[in-house]
Design a protein that fits this description.
single chain; 239 residues; alpha/beta; seven-stranded mixed beta sheet; two-stranded antiparallel ribbon; 7 helices; 9 strands; 22% strand; globular
């Protein structure tokens, strides 16, 4: 798995591969987004970001809230640490955690695995509102959107002990809706972000719970390019 070199792609794969994916777990998007900063640090194309992570002046927001500014919960926010607050260094992670005084980079992650068109308006609304929250109360954060879109020919979701397989008719298979969902995302959500990435994948959510990228090499190229552009933009925007 060559995607294992990138934490975001590895963690995203791990949501599905080898075990069931439960779509109602709202913490999963946070988890994926938080690894964006590990990838930026390892890539080391932004001297300023790398140095500020090393000195713990910039941290991953522990509570996804900026101090003194009420905000809805955001995925993977990163910014300047409140000076009197302690930075928490977790083993195995370069980027420490802590409360932030402002947001320099904000990432929002969504995953469309099934029933995409049914929920597309809500997902787009959430994405648009998140960019507004990142920029509210001043500042000029870099906004990143990452949306996973499933292209599997069939899929089963879980609600407690009940299973809900797609049938291609009343319950469309993911591959039947994927392109339409992407088109709507690019038209209505992407313009509000500095960087917007669609992760195309296949996961049936059925034993043995396989996972694959629609085009692994293209996924790697697009994500690597996003990291490079994001690094350059950070150095220009936060001197």
């Amino acid at each position: 798995m060559i995607d294992a070199n990138y934490a975001v792609l590895r963690v995203f794969r791990g949501l599905f591969e080898g075990h069931p994916y439960f779509h109602r777990d709202s913490s999963l998007g946070d988890r994926v987004a938080s690894y964006l900063y590990e990838d930026l640090y390892v890539l080391n194309k932004s001297t300023r970001l790398h140095e500020r992570v090393d000195t713990r002046s910039r941290v991953l927001n522990a509570q996804n809230l900026t101090v003194g500014i009420p905000r809805r919960r955001g995925d993977g926010t990163f910014g300047e640490r409140v000076p009197v607050a302690q930075a928490i260094a977790d083993e195995g992670f370069a980027v420490a955690r802590g409360p932030v005084a402002n947001i320099e980079i904000g990432a929002e992650t969504k995953i469309l695995a099934k029933a995409m068109i049914k929920q597309i308006d809500r997902v787009i609304g959430d994405l648009v509102r998140q960019t507004e929250e990142f920029t509210r109360k001043g500042g000029h954060p870099i906004c990143v959107g990452i949306v996973g879109v499933n292209f599997a020919p069939r899929y089963t979701s879980y609600e407690g002990n009940r299973t809900f397989p797609t049938d291609g008719k009343k319950y469309k298979h993911p591959v039947q809706e994927a392109e339409d969902a992407i088109s709507r995302l690019l038209q209505r959500a992407a313009p509000g972000f500095d960087e917007f990435l669609i992760l195309k994948f296949e996961a049936s959510n059925m034993p043995p719970h396989p996972f694959s990228w629609e085009d692994e090499n293209q996924t790697l190229l697009e994500y690597s390019a996003l990291l490079t552009r994001l690094s350059r933009e950070y150095d220009q925007r936060f001197q």
